[in-house]
Amino acid sequence: MRRRNFISLLGGAAAAWPLAARAQPRERTRRIGVLVGLGADDSQAQARNAAFLQGLGALGWIVGRNLQIDFRWGGGNARRYRRQAAELVALAPELIVAMGASVVGPLLQTTRTVPIVFVQVTDPVSSGYVASLARPGGNATGFALFEFGISAKWIELLKEIAPRVTRAAVLRDPTVPVGLGQLGAIQSVAPSLKVEISPLGVRDARDIEHAITAFARGSSDGLIVLPSVPTAIHRTLIVTLAAQHKLPAVYPYRYYAAAGGLICYGPDEIEQYRQAAGYVDRILKGEKPGDLPVQAPTKYELIINLKTAKALGLDIPTTVLARADEVIE
Questions:
Q1: For residue 246, what are the domain limits?
Q2: What is the pLDDT of residues 37-55, one digit of tens each?
Q3: Of 127, 236, 215, nearest to 170 (Cα)?
Q4: 273 shares a domain with 262
Q5: Which end of the chain, N or C, is less surrounded by CB atoms within 10 Å?
Q6: What is 97-158 written as a DSSP string?
Q7: pTM of the predicted model, to two decimals?
Q8: What's the gap between Cα 165 and its chain centre?
Q9: Residue 42 covered by a domain
């Protein structure tokens, strides 16, 4: 009898095991939105997105397991930003990541309640996105890029690597207000370097080609490219035109130098996308964006393309080479 009772008990327990397993609570899936200023086929946008997903994965957030992400890609179209911001908010995500300064404004015009984590924004305070860097105070926080003073470094670098430059074009998107601050910083030091500044407002490839071609005159000309969606989307065209017109050029991000640009000085923007995952994690776990300080870059990279320098007939000073974080041969 005891043996029959044991077998019966064992069988009952075995039958209960699947029920017990089914009774375990499933991990809750959280939903976030991502609005990207660049297009889905842009290699740099893909690199940023990969870094962001890598950062999320390191914190235990896996798409398809405990996370759902709704992506929207702007492709540099301001009208599309507004439409896609409204679409994302209508999906009722727990937060939205704004990848690029150009999409933050449309998102904040659409919602002041859904938490927003922004990346690659210059001067979010004067833009009205946050009350202060230390205490954002609203529904947005994130990662800032350039202080305006960094812009002065670009013209100083240009003059250092190409002393013959006496005229410099500054390529910028006129629809980006913070570009005025960057331009102002450049203009403030230009007289001491004996360089005449020519602002070139551009919005598309046609503008870029016309502006650079009309500006370039001879060996005393140079180029500074400010960060914006149009200059990022058309980076290959800009680098090609600079080479064609023999213009020494300074760029804000590494990917310009990797594409053949002469020199870049700016933050590691890919790292900021990994860091953004940390703020997503903290907000999903209950913290408020208004309590999370806006973070600034802790390191700036100097990248030099020696192949391009040789093509331009430039001998990069050893003092500049010694400061470089990377030299592309």
A1: 148-267+300-328
A2: 999 999 999 999 999 999 9
A3: 215
A4: no
A5: N
A6: EEESGGGHHHHHHH-SSS-EEEEEES-TTTTTS-S-SS---SSEEEEE---HHHHHHHHHHH
A7: 0.87
A8: 30
A9: yes
